[in-house]
Amino acid sequence: MPILYVPAEPPPPTPEVVVPGYRVGAPPRITWTSAAGAVTILSDPGSGYTVAPGVRGLGLPAYQYHRTDTALDGTVVRGVRAEPRELFVPIYMEAPTFTEVWQMRRTLAARLHPVEADGGGEGVLEVAFADGSRRRIRAHYTGGMEGSEGSDEAGLCWATYGLEFLAQQPYWERAPITYRWAIAPAEDTWLPLLPIKVRDADVIGQGMTIVNPGTVRSWPVWTITGPLDGSAVMRNHTLGQELEFAATLSEGEQIVIDTRPRRKTVRDDAGVNMFSALTPGSVLWPLAPGPNTVDVELTGLDDDSRLELEITPLELTA
After folding, report:
1. Model pTM?
2. Residue 46: pLDDT over 60
3. Rg for the chain, CA atoms, rounded
4. Phi and psi for 303 in degrees, rounded to 5?
5. 3-class SS at 275?
6. Rounded to whole angstroms, how far apart are CA atoms 98 and 93?
7. Are 205 and 304 in contact (CB under 8 A)?
8. Domains of the chain with CATH codes
C-alpha cells in the first residue's frame, strides 16, 4: 500500500505578529501571561508599565557539575545539568491617580499569584522582538511584590517592583512545529508536487532527516491515527535509540506518545494508559539539535491512517 511520504524538512515558520510601531532594533517587549490566561505587557508605557534596567535570566542557565576528585591534581567532570532558571524583571508602574495605580497593583498581584488552589499557578514569561521572533518560558512568581513602601520604591501615583520568577524547565520555547504524514490510496494516479513522494511499503520513511532547529534537545509528541494493526517503530539513528510498541487501532482511534520530560506518557484518545504496550528496551527519545536521521515503520495501515509529530524547539537564551 503506497505511503504518502512528506520529507521532514522544517516547515516555514509561523508568521509572528510584529508589534505595531515597534521599530527594528528596539528593546524586546516583555509579557506575563497568568495561569488563567490574563496578559500583562510589562514593557508598555502606554498602559502604565515600564521594564527598568537590570533584567536578569535571559542568557544561559546556571549549570551544576557532577565531578569526582582524585589524588591527581584537578578533578573529573562526570556530568553537567542545567539548573532551574531564575529570572528577575524590575518594573515601574504609574497612573494618573493614586486609586488607579493601586488598582494596577492589585490586578498584577492577582495575576502573579502562584497558588493553583486559588486559580493561580505557573504562567508564561514571553520576550518578543521587533522582527516578530519570540521566546517563551514557563515560570512561577517567587517574590519581589511584597509591598515595600520606601520613598524610593513607591509614591502617590507610582511604584517599583523587582519581580522574581523560577522556571522549572530552564530553556526558552519557540513556536511548536508539526510534521504530518498520510496514506495515499493505491488507486491514486495523480502525480504529487515535490517534495512529496509515494512509496510502496508500510514504512513512512527510512533515513528521513528531521531537523530540530533549537539549540538543545527537543522532545517530540507522536500521534498515530488508525487503522493500525501490528506495531510502530520510531528509530533515531543519530542518538542510537528507538521506541517500539504493539497495538491495534480502529479507524479514527489514536495513540499519543508524549516523550517530554516529567510527562512521558503513552495514552489512547480516551486517556487510557498504554505504556505497557511499549516493548522492553524502548526509549522515549528526543531529537538532538540540528538534523536527525529517523526511521518510522508502521504495520497494518489503511488509507485513513495518519502520523503526526510535534516538537517545541528549545533555546539556551531568550
Report:
1. 0.83
2. yes
3. 24
4. -60, -25
5. helix
6. 11
7. no
8. 2-10+175-315 (2.60.120.860), 29-173 (2.40.30.200)
